[in-house]
Design a protein that fits this description.
single chain, about 100 residues, two-stranded antiparallel ribbon, two-stranded antiparallel sheet, 4 strands, about 10% helix, elongated
Length: about 100
Amino acid sequence: MACRRRRTRRPPSPRPRPRARGACRTTEPGRTAGHGARTTRPRLRHSVRAIVLDPDDRVLLGRHRTGDGVVRAAPGGGVEPGETPARALRREQLAP
């Protein structure tokens, strides 16, 4: 019979675990994600939207052109630093 070696537990590795296949590999701006492509974190921003209904309960949507095509969205926009969401919505609704 062959002699079996007893397995010992290794201490945890200081390296991060590999990500699942297809997982997002974002890094800080200017750093590479291991395969040479430069990636950055998305710039997220707080925003407000209004649901505007007419007497027939139809919803008002705005039409915006983007690089990928046309997008329809409820009226609204971004919240500036130090601004309350209610004030931002009021400003966006009164804008020409």
